[in-house]
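User: Need the bound-state model for dioxothiomolybdenum(VI) ion:
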Amino acid sequence: MTALDQPARLDPVVGRPLDRVDGPDKVTGAARYPAEFGFDRLAHAVVVQSTVAAGRIGGIDTRAAEAEPGVLAVITHANAPVLQAAPSSVMGPAPPAPLQDREVRHHGQHLAVVVAETFEQATAAAALVRVDYQVEAPLLRLDDPRARTVAHPEVPDLDRGAVEAGLAAADMLVEATYTTPTEHHNPMALFATTAVWDGDALTVYDTTQWPVNVRTVLAATFGLPEARVRVLAPFVGGAFGAGLRAWPHVVLAALAARQVDRPVRLVLSRAQMFTSVGYRPATVQRVRLGASGDGTLTAISHQVTEPTAIGDDHRENPVRATPVLYACPNVSTRFRQVRLNLPTPTWMRGPGEAQGVFALESALDELAAKLRIDPLELRLRNLPERHPQSGKEWASNALRACYERGAARFGWSARSPEPGSMRDGRDLVGWGMASAYYPYVHRPAEASARITADGRVVVASSTTDIGTGTGTVMSQIAADALGLPVDRVRFELGDTRLPPAPQQGGSGTTAAVGTAVHAACLALLRAFVDLVDDDPASPLRGARHAGVTAAAGRLSRSDDPGQGEPYGEILRRHGRSELSAHGHGAVRQDASHLAPGIFGAKFAEVRVDPDLGVVRVQRLVAAVDGGRIVNQKTAESQVIGGTVGGIGMALLEESLTDPGSGRIVNATYADYLVPVNADVLPVEVLFVGDPDPMNPIGAKGVAEIAIVGVAPAVANAVFHATGRRLRSLPITLDQLL
Ligand code: MOS
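Assistant: Bound-state model below.
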């Protein structure tokens, strides 16, 4: 139901646990992913990657590869055209264009691309490309004295109050170093790009979370107007942040297609995924906490160092939650990056916060143990009633409810405080918890809505759906705004010809695109009012001032709900087959006095085998304040997925780089461990909190908060089970023996 002068009432469809609208397409195989678009004369491209981490290309011998059957082209720095540098986006610079010089900056850098009739021919020929390197000693370690340490200009040093004085005044101190490893996103689907030129017009099917950005990068790289580039991403088989940049292989696919004048498909191999689409950078984190005897925090100092690339850039902020989660007067944060001969890191689920909150929440647990205060009680004593940095009132903040309801569901009050004091048979039992925060971000977006005389609506935006359920929740929002059953709404997405949308990232899509969809639907209602306002045949005549209500497929007068008519009736009488409208989901202008934020509390139970050191996460409760939950089922599914990622971060995931060569040695699904079903026992998700006032949907987001806090909750549970404080992820059984 909707009145024109106020936000839509989002019922009865919003909030319901609807099955995802694209589910049948996915399970029947009708869904087509970027590697599945076939074309006449489709050729296949395979990248050749550097086998050293630093130096220069002395020469590349492509003759043997070119002589192979089916080979159409071998493109290297020696014969590649000059490509233009792409502009920076709101998320930072674009990756440098490939094949533009002889420099080798990391192991796995693309040095050539082989194009052939078949994928197998291209793969075989790629193995025959010979590269002579002038090898240099690579910079691979954070503590290498030759490496350059930089402060990221967009993550300034933060000093609130006087941290040293706060530490000096404390009754109890915790001072410790925590580390987290390199991790890879490992989406199920290999990233792929299919590129098709038609004259100087380029169409690309790409694995991306941001088609508009891929269009910008490709247009700039090839010197084309953006209108000549179309990027489609109708389905994406997982991304988790890896799809937020237009990586060099995307450019290579388009370059290869232009060079051979045929459609070209480029699919990265699983091993190539480890060096081509980013990763979560490892961190070294120094945390100092001070507190008075009653647990009141007097100081927090948090310093994080992580690697970044040479010749490219990555911005995340592992210390962003630190000044926000607790009402501490004295806080100091530092973030430094060290330029190494590694592939460029990128955003990975809860980027920054996932690592930073591990250290912060582990340190809080250490403080609680030293003070002999219950870890949950320690958090409650330092709850931030207002935003601790800005002093602003929270737009919405149900952190207390996350703690209390999560604890109640978990049964936290039955926890016996002494480490090692709880057992189940031989197994040591541990209960741990942690807080979680992620910033709410609202970005401008646009959407369109079109209704036809049969009462069916198509809503559209160029956003993607990387598996989150975006298509489903947008259909729900449109259905309620227009007063239609959800099965009358179809949401089109993943195509730059549709209205522009921001990146599907940072937990912001439901809020941003949802607001645009909502605006488009309201604009559509206004267009109907324009049609009937002076229509003597309409019961809605003159209803502009009274307002209209959309419900049950009809528009009716708000001042006399019995007076109304169906959309189709209005269209037919006015000789129209359809009516359409456009909506801008602008950022709310009058909300600068409010501090938004997404919150959570995670509770974990582990069982540790005292002889073998095997850790099993027995159960997990995630209490999440993500604002209004548009779809209970898809949101819960996202939180479960992020929780599984958090279990992986805590116990399994770690990409290992050979310290001599810079090669990632476990770049396979066999050697890079992720949780499987047997590792994931019940995960309970509680959504708490109210609709947020920052956007008309009331949604904040759940994607990142899902993983933040899981690893420290598990690590804290391991401490509680064993008395062993493990500060280096992943926690493996050798550390517990
Ligand atoms: Mo998420 S790391 O913003 O895809």
